[in-house]
Amino acid sequence: MVYKYGFCPHCGKKISIYNNVIGGVYSDYIDFPYKKCPYCNEIYNTGKKLYSEMNQKEKEKIDSLIIREAFHNTGVCIVIFGTIFGFICMVLSWIGIEVPRNSMLIIFFIICIFSFVKGCISAKQVLKQIKNMSINDL
Fold first, then answer.
1. What is the share, in percent, of the chain residues with pLDDT greater than 70?
2. Are the CB atoms for 37 and 121 separated by under 8 Å?
3. How many domains is the chain partitioned into structurally?
4. 3 within some domain
5. Are residues 73 and 46 in the same domain?
6. Can you give the pTM of this predicted structure?
């Protein structure tokens, strides 16, 4: 998680500009248009928009970012589990145990499908959360 900081235009104190509601790459594009400084309690403009206030092109950009992140997370899981399974196979063959490659490939394939489904479900939840953001939540 990467936190970004800015300065309050009223009091000049350092404040977090990370969106705690949605986080991730989306917080660079979607956020409440106005926030309250935690130090001086003045309202300042963030320069960002809610999903409901975006035009169709901006919404498509956000949707593509969400889908891209789901595929990216799936790829990371495949690399991690592929490395672990490769290491397990290597160790088992070093100690003389016959490795049933077909069953290992099936298990690896199931984990890949599981990670892809999990990524899609997470993306759907983030998109739902983004769409439900309202200025009343401020």
1. 83
2. no
3. 2
4. no
5. no
6. 0.57
